[in-house]
Amino acid sequence: MPEPASDLPSPAGPWPADLARLVAIALEAGRAILEIYHDPARIQAQTKGDGSPLTAADLAADAVIRAGLATHFAGVPVVSEESLPGPADGARTEGFLVDPVDGTKEFLKRNGEFTVNIARVVQGQAVEAVVLAPALGELFAARRGVGAWAARPGQPPQALACAAWAPGNTLRVLASRSHGAPRLDAWLRGLGLPHRIDNAGSSLKFCRLAQGLADVYPRFGPTSQWDTAAGQCVLECAGGSVFDWSGRPLAYTLTEPWLNPEFVALGCAPGLALHARLFPRASTSGPIGSP
């Protein structure tokens, strides 16, 4: 089990002013989460209607984030897992997707692999985002057209860049810690490449791809828009990509239905070796080994 972070990264960095505000909001939420995380008597869960767990940390972080966004981005709609808005007539053109504690199961296991996710979405695309793993002391921030960075306590932010897989190399595959693997195993058999599997919780999988520590994260099973938007933004700003199984980039409506299609996240841009291997034909056909 990772040691809990003794501190959080500094809010200072090379990011634009709006992204700096999101970083500060995420760090404030992270401090609220850690107060509960470090007090075992307060780590209790109730079960939501969909069967997923809810803790005091989810609610505390949600309140902090919503208050911060209302102050600095007044009038911009907020879609948070813990406080969903009412129905909209068609897709919202701009708004925030928030998961106050992504990986609540990891929070309850106390393995540190849970994150705070905040993404600003414009016209279906996450344009700036923050992913914070407060118990690990890791911060990821990204702004489309500007870049992506990782920061740790006492260290200046470092620019992120994916490391594209090359034919002949072992494929580094990321899988969830809290979800079953039978379909992943079947997909890998169909892919027919030498590989190794590493596990990670929450949106950290996108960030590990962005750091160049893995090549692919195939996701089988349900996720919601707030689970993926921030991580996808970090990954794409570092040179990666995310596609559904028909080959379309994963996009966001900011309204119901909240569930994403199943997807594959890649540590490379379209057209490079791994993308070409998975999507050898037009986007109307699924990738090799797809379900």
Overview of the molecule:
- With 291 residues, the chain is an alpha+beta fold.
- The chain folds into 2 domains: 17-159, 2-Layer Sandwich (Fructose-1,6-Bisphosphatase, Chain A, domain 1); 171-278, D-Maltodextrin-Binding Protein, domain 2.
- Helices cover 27% and strands 25% of the residues.
- It has 7 helices and 14 strands.
- It has helices at 17-37, 56-72, 104-109, 182-191, 204-210, 225-237, 273-278, and strands spanning 45-47, 53-55, 78-80, 94-102, 115-122, 125-133, 138-143, 147-151, 158-159, 171-176, 195-200, 216-219, 241-244, 263-266.
- The strands form 4 sheets. Strands 3-4-5-6-7-8-9 form a 7-stranded mixed β-sheet, with helices on both faces. A 3-stranded antiparallel β-sheet has the order 12-14-13, covered by helices on one side.
- The longest helix has 21 residues, at 17-37.
- The radius of gyration is 18 Å and the shape is globular.
- The two termini are 34 Å apart.
- The model has no long low-confidence stretch (mean pLDDT 90).
Outline:
The chain contains seven helices and 14 strands.
Helix fraction, binned, reads 25-40%
Total domains: 2
Q: Report the CATH superfamily of the largest domain.
A: Fructose-1,6-Bisphosphatase, subunit A, domain 1
* Overall radius of gyration: 18 Å
Oligomer: single chain
How would a textbook summarize the main sheet? 7 strands, mixed
**Assigned CATH class of the largest domain:** Alpha Beta
Distance between the termini: 34 Å
Percent of residues in β-strands: 15-25%
- Helical segment tally? 7
Strand order of the largest sheet: 3-4-5-6-7-8-9
In the CATH hierarchy, the third-tier topology of the largest domain is known as Fructose-1,6-Bisphosphatase, Chain A, domain 1
Low-confidence stretches: none
Q: Structural class of the helices, strands and pairings?
A: alpha+beta
Q: What spatial form do the alpha-carbon principal axes imply?
A: globular
Q: Got a strand count?
A: 14
